[in-house]
Structure formats: C-alpha cells, structure tokens
Design brief:
- With about 170 residues, the chain is of the alpha+beta class.
- The chain has two domains: about 55 residues, Thrombin, subunit H (Beta Barrel), CATH 2.40.10; about 110 residues, Up-down Bundle (Methane Monooxygenase Hydroxylase, Chain G, domain 1), CATH 1.20.58.1290.
- Helices cover about 50% and strands about 20% of the residues.
- The chain has a five-stranded antiparallel beta sheet.
- Helix 2 runs parallel beside helix 4 and helix 4 packs across helix 5.
- The longest helix has 21 residues.
- The N and C termini lie far apart (about 50 Å).
Length: about 170
C-alpha cells in the first residue's frame, strides 16, 4: 500500500505524488482510491487501491536502479536497428513498452529511437515517442537519483551526442 505524499510512477504518465486515499461508492460498491497528482502536467488520477499494482502503479525506482538505467543507455551492443521492421510494428512495440511502466522498457525505447535517428530521419510519430520516452525516463531518474530533470536530459543528450550531431548534419 502506498502512503500519502509517496512518489509513485503511473505507466505512460510518469511520476506522481499520492495526495490522499479516498473512499467512494460506485454502483453500490464501496471502493478505496489513491488520488495521484502527476507532477509533470498536474493531472489528477484516481487509481483503485485494490487494482493499483495491476494497472502498473509502482514506487519510483531506487537510486541504484536509476544509475543502472542511466548506464544502460550507454551500451549500444544489443542495438539491431530497424532492418526488416516496418514503422507500424515498431510504433506498436514502442507504445506497448511505454505503457508497461517498466523503466527499463521505456529506456529501451529512448535508446532505440535515438540510435535509429542516427541512420534516418525520425518520422513525426517517432519523434513524439522519443519525446515521451525522454520525459518519462528523465523525470523518474531525476527523482530517483536526486538531480534536476534538465540535468538528466543533458546527461542523456551527452550520451547520444554523436547521434544528435549526425541528425544535425542531415538537416
């Protein structure tokens, strides 16, 4: 059970804070809900306490896990590129990974899209997914390792500086 004021992660929304636990009666059934305010956009979510884990609500990762995720972005050994995969299949795969709520899946999408962008110009949809993944990863890492989100983004951009430079050369 999450506590009031605890930082949590909601899949595809990012880091939020549990503001309160509220009881409501819906259809004659009483249920408890976490009221979670997403920090990046101030959206308020009602998450059923009984179903919180099933919908992917989880605590912010530990600093050790956060550092590991940051380091994993540097490892390009498993990058296979986009050969043989059409954009629709990749888009669906990446969207599912972003919705999974697993930070390593979201970091995978971030890394893949950065690296794909080195070889070809990303489509509008790919750029949107890249921005979403960057926001989700950088926000959770910022809270996990106690750094400013912009510093995390700068660090990620440094990891992919060669990719960003290659993209700028194309434009």
């Amino acid at each position: 059970m999450f506590k009031v004021n605890e930082l949590v992660v909601y899949p595809s929304q990012g880091v939020g804070r549990v503001e309160r636990v509220e009881s409501q009666e819906i259809g004659g059934v009483k249920a408890d809900f976490y009221i979670v305010r997403i920090l990046s956009n101030n959206v308020t979510l009602m998450v059923p306490v009984a179903n919180a884990v099933n919908v992917g609500l989880r605590p912010v990762c530990s600093s050790t896990v956060g550092q590991g995720i940051f380091e994993s972005l540097k490892d390009r050994s498993e990058f296979t590129g986009y050969t043989g995969q059409n954009w629709n299949r990749r888009y669906r795969e990446y969207s599912e990974k972003l919705k999974s709520g697993d930070l390593s899946d979201v970091a995978y999408v971030l890394k893949e899209l950065f690296l794909i962008g080195k070889d070809k110009e990303l489509s509008f949809g790919e750029r949107r997914l890249l921005e979403q993944a960057m926001g989700l990863v950088s926000m959770e890492l910022a809270y996990s390792i106690d750094m400013d989100q912009e510093e995390i983004k700068e660090g990620i951009n440094e990891i992919f500086a060669d990719v960003i430079a290659a993209q700028e050369e194309k434009n």
